[in-house]
Design a protein that fits this description.
four-stranded parallel sheet
């Protein structure tokens, strides 16, 4: 939060407190860092709003009950900084982070999609059932997962359709 000082017509100074809105932080899209409420739609909204840029998590625990979809186009890839945040789930999910969710929109196998960068994120699926923590569909490149941990998933990373 920051303070803006404004002069009024009679030289009195007024203070206005302005929220430090950061369009790159998942909290500003309604994500819950306490792990109580489902944050999947908020995280997806933040990714959609920041295609071609970056998003970040504040420290905390984020419950996710459905897939997080990463962009398909190279110009839309997103860098995700987890800042040590933890993703948990109690749901049954085939793939938690799905690379290139828009891949199904094209049948051109030469139109190769690009993955996003994901770093400093912990995935704990001990109370749910997740097959793939990170799933990259066949034909994708630039898959960067840095300093991430997965706990209780069938596959930490799965690349390809089979």
């Amino acid at each position: 939060m920051f303070i803006i000082e404004m002069s009024t017509s009679d030289d009195l100074v007024a203070e206005k407190i302005v929220s430090n809105y950061d369009k790159h932080n998942v909290l500003n899209y309604g994500a819950d860092p306490t792990g109580t409420n489902d944050s999947a739609s908020a995280i997806n909204a933040c990714i959609q709003a920041n295609k071609g840029g970056s998003i970040s998590f504040a420290e905390g625990v984020y419950k996710v009950q459905s897939a997080i979809n990463l962009p398909f186009a190279d110009s839309e890839k997103v860098s995700i900084d987890g800042n040590g945040a933890k993703i948990i789930t109690t749901a049954t999910i085939d793939s938690l982070f799905v690379g290139g969710a828009d891949r199904a929109l094209t049948t051109d196998r030469n139109n190769v999609g690009f993955m996003s960068y994901i770093k400093d994120l912990k995935i704990d699926c001990s109370n749910g059932s997740v097959t793939n923590a990170f799933y990259n569909m066949q034909g994708f490149k630039d898959w960067h997962i840095i300093n991430c941990t997965t706990y209780r998933t069938t596959n930490g990373v799965k690349i390809g359709d089979s």
